[in-house]
Specification:
Elements lengths: L2 H20 L3 E5 L2 H11 L5 E4 L3 H5 L2 H7 L3 E2 L8 H7 L5 E4 L3 E3 L4 E5 L3 H7 L4 E7 L3 E2 L2 H19 L5 H5 L14 E5 L8 E6 L6
Parallel strand pairs: 1-10, 2-3, 2-4, 4-7, 5-8, 7-10
Antiparallel strand pairs: 5-6, 6-9
């Protein structure tokens, strides 16, 4: 990223933060992955119960490892033999960590899910939801965000999981009904009924897919 892209992202992040505020959500800006990790740990009190969805961006800033190593009750679903039990534990957690598949400049969040544990926890359950979002995921408007989620994030994730979907072969959404589809549930978060429940750290970096 050159200095001009970096400055553009910095300015755009302020617009996104204003959009989030208008939707009863909170946003903050991190100039780097290291700053994002510091901000996240400032937002999560010691002793909190914390869990997450897939969240490559959460891993990328080192947050998941910091929570495993620190004074937190980190519910690591990869360590559970019973994955359903781990997913259900998320609904009563203090914090649910995630990223977005895309978001808009005016603060709307777009997420697509296969098992739907991630989008359901975002919508309701955990006391707080903390998103780690690279500026590469910010789109002009809702139409652009939906296109990004379906034609960028979904094919890459389907390939990452080794699934047999049309998008793995074509690189773009075919609106399939494959048994392997990860596009089962679409969640657009346009407003939070509960002030401060949803928090977003915007990172001036390219994170996730």
């Amino acid at each position: 990223m050159n200095q001009f892209e970096y400055k553009r992202n910095e300015l755009l992040a302020q617009k996104v933060i204003k959009g989030l505020k208008s939707r009863n959500m909170e946003g903050c800006y991190a100039a780097s992955k290291e700053d994002a990790l510091r901000l996240a740990l400032e937002l999560i009190p010691e002793g909190s119960s914390v869990t997450m969805g897939g969240g490559e961006s959460v891993h990328a800033i080192g947050l998941s490892q910091a929570l495993k190593d620190g004074p937190y009750n980190f519910i690591d679903r990869d360590a559970y033999e019973d994955k359903r039990a781990a997913m259900l534990a998320a609904y009563d957690a203090d914090f649910f960590l995630a990223s977005v598949n895309a978001m808009t400049e005016d603060g709307q969040l777009v997420n697509i899910d296969g098992n739907s544990n991630r989008v359901s926890a975002i919508a309701q359950g955990p006391k707080k939801v903390l998103f780690i979002v690279g500026m590469n995921k910010v789109c002009d408007d809702l139409d652009g965000a939906m296109k990004r989620a379906r034609n960028v994030a979904a094919p890459i994730n389907a390939q990452r999981f080794g699934l047999d979907t049309p998008c793995c072969k074509t690189g773009s959404c075919m609106d399939c009904k494959s048994s392997d589809t990860i596009c089962c549930q679409f969640l657009i978060t346009r407003y939070s009924r509960h002030a401060g429940r949803i928090q977003v750290i915007l990172v001036n970096d390219s994170l996730g897919f």
